[in-house]
Amino acid sequence: MDPLKKVLSGEQLSQEEARALMGRIMAGELTPAQMAGVLVALRVRGETLEEITGFAEGMREAAVTIRVSRKPLVDIVGTGGIAPEAFNISTTSCFVVAAGGVAVAKHGNRLASSRSGSFDLLEALGIRLDTPVERVAEGIEALGIGFLFARNHHPAMRHVAPVRAELGVRTVFNILGPLTNPAYASHYVLGVYTPALLETFANAVRKLGAEAALVVHGDGLDDFGLWNNQLAELHNGSIRRYALTPGEVGLPAATYEQLTGGTPPENAVIARAILSGQERGPRRDAVALTAGAAFYISGRTPTIAQGVTLAQEVLDSGAGLELLERLVRFTQG
């Protein structure tokens, strides 16, 4: 049966059928009514691992991709969908990770669920979002960091955007962004909005070719929180579940309210203060924990705790801020 008809009939798709259907969506072959029907049917039934993986494959096949030689190549990314007041933890962490010697290719977009999306913050920091994709690749090679603005890499999403906007509810596309990195990142720190997605995402990135990943739900955050975190770790082809508290890696606990931010300009001030080593406290600790997790999963350090220590050293040195300023000049040049 045609994959479109299967979905509309409530049947599940194989990975290959999902890939083919996404190819048709990306090519603009579905009418708005058909596309809305697919998105609503999937939302009501719930997407399977095979469908999520196949859809991600179809999106990447239609994307403007880049290839870089830097390995490992890490993406620190979240699904969004919760914590509207939270500070941009993962985006700030990227500069710490890259300054600590691990290349970063972060894929993301503007405001999704918070007051300041990752790329809203980057723009406020002075990084040009319209940087040509080839120039972004050059930056990853030269500086060890680059930001892949989804609108520049997924032009076929123009076929989907009006329907998504009119529906006004979360759809499968809200979870596909973190799985469709156009630089084919090899390692991930990936935050999800519900613990129900932990193993699904770990399995999906494995099927999509990732070498290792930490998928985290921070009990109300699609990031690491300074409280109990639930994780699914992909390593050497196997997936294990466990919990992690800040105390286990030498950090004090904090509350959600202590991790809040503001508008993009306000968050830019916060990010610069953290990266310069000037700001101390919970927001810095959350950045250190996230960066420490990236150091660990990329093989830079043998444990998350040692990764946190390295992240703190990078923050104290101000190397993250120096890298930020270099990237600003690079994208403005």
From TrEMBL:
<dbReference type="Pfam" id="PF00591">
    <property type="entry name" value="Glycos_transf_3"/>
</dbReference>
<keyword id="KW-0808">Transferase</keyword>
<dbReference type="GO" id="GO:0004048">
    <property type="term" value="F:anthranilate phosphoribosyltransferase activity"/>
</dbReference>
<feature type="domain" description="Glycosyl transferase family 3 N-terminal">
    <location>
        <begin position="4"/>
        <end position="63"/>
    </location>
</feature>
<feature type="binding site">
    <location>
        <position position="90"/>
    </location>
    <ligand>
        <name>Mg(2+) 1</name>
    </ligand>
</feature>
<feature type="binding site">
    <location>
        <position position="78"/>
    </location>
    <ligand>
        <name>anthranilate 1</name>
    </ligand>
</feature>
<dbReference type="GO" id="GO:0000287">
    <property type="term" value="F:magnesium ion binding"/>
</dbReference>
<comment type="function">
    <text>Catalyzes the transfer of the phosphoribosyl group of 5-phosphorylribose-1-pyrophosphate (PRPP) to anthranilate to yield N-(5'-phosphoribosyl)-anthranilate (PRA).</text>
</comment>
<comment type="similarity">
    <text>In the C-terminal section; belongs to the anthranilate phosphoribosyltransferase family.</text>
</comment>
<keyword id="KW-0460">Magnesium</keyword>
<feature type="binding site">
    <location>
        <position position="222"/>
    </location>
    <ligand>
        <name>Mg(2+) 2</name>
    </ligand>
</feature>
<keyword id="KW-0479">Metal-binding</keyword>
<dbReference type="InterPro" id="IPR005940">
    <property type="entry name" value="Anthranilate_Pribosyl_Tfrase"/>
</dbReference>
<protein>
    <recommendedName>
        <fullName>Anthranilate phosphoribosyltransferase</fullName>
        <ecNumber>2.4.2.18</ecNumber>
    </recommendedName>
</protein>
<comment type="pathway">
    <text>Amino-acid biosynthesis; L-tryptophan biosynthesis; L-tryptophan from chorismate: step 2/5.</text>
</comment>
<keyword id="KW-0822">Tryptophan biosynthesis</keyword>
<dbReference type="Pfam" id="PF02885">
    <property type="entry name" value="Glycos_trans_3N"/>
</dbReference>
<keyword id="KW-0328">Glycosyltransferase</keyword>
<dbReference type="GO" id="GO:0000162">
    <property type="term" value="P:L-tryptophan biosynthetic process"/>
</dbReference>
<feature type="binding site">
    <location>
        <position position="109"/>
    </location>
    <ligand>
        <name>anthranilate 1</name>
    </ligand>
</feature>
<comment type="similarity">
    <text>Belongs to the anthranilate phosphoribosyltransferase family.</text>
</comment>
<feature type="binding site">
    <location>
        <position position="118"/>
    </location>
    <ligand>
        <name>5-phospho-alpha-D-ribose 1-diphosphate</name>
    </ligand>
</feature>
<feature type="binding site">
    <location>
        <position position="164"/>
    </location>
    <ligand>
        <name>anthranilate 2</name>
    </ligand>
</feature>
<dbReference type="GO" id="GO:0005829">
    <property type="term" value="C:cytosol"/>
</dbReference>
<feature type="domain" description="Glycosyl transferase family 3">
    <location>
        <begin position="71"/>
        <end position="319"/>
    </location>
</feature>
<feature type="binding site">
    <location>
        <begin position="106"/>
        <end position="114"/>
    </location>
    <ligand>
        <name>5-phospho-alpha-D-ribose 1-diphosphate</name>
    </ligand>
</feature>
<comment type="subunit">
    <text>Homodimer.</text>
</comment>
<dbReference type="InterPro" id="IPR036320">
    <property type="entry name" value="Glycosyl_Trfase_fam3_N_dom_sf"/>
</dbReference>
<feature type="binding site">
    <location>
        <begin position="88"/>
        <end position="91"/>
    </location>
    <ligand>
        <name>5-phospho-alpha-D-ribose 1-diphosphate</name>
    </ligand>
</feature>
<dbReference type="InterPro" id="IPR017459">
    <property type="entry name" value="Glycosyl_Trfase_fam3_N_dom"/>
</dbReference>
<dbReference type="InterPro" id="IPR035902">
    <property type="entry name" value="Nuc_phospho_transferase"/>
</dbReference>
<keyword id="KW-0057">Aromatic amino acid biosynthesis</keyword>
<keyword id="KW-0028">Amino-acid biosynthesis</keyword>
<feature type="binding site">
    <location>
        <position position="78"/>
    </location>
    <ligand>
        <name>5-phospho-alpha-D-ribose 1-diphosphate</name>
    </ligand>
</feature>
<dbReference type="InterPro" id="IPR000312">
    <property type="entry name" value="Glycosyl_Trfase_fam3"/>
</dbReference>
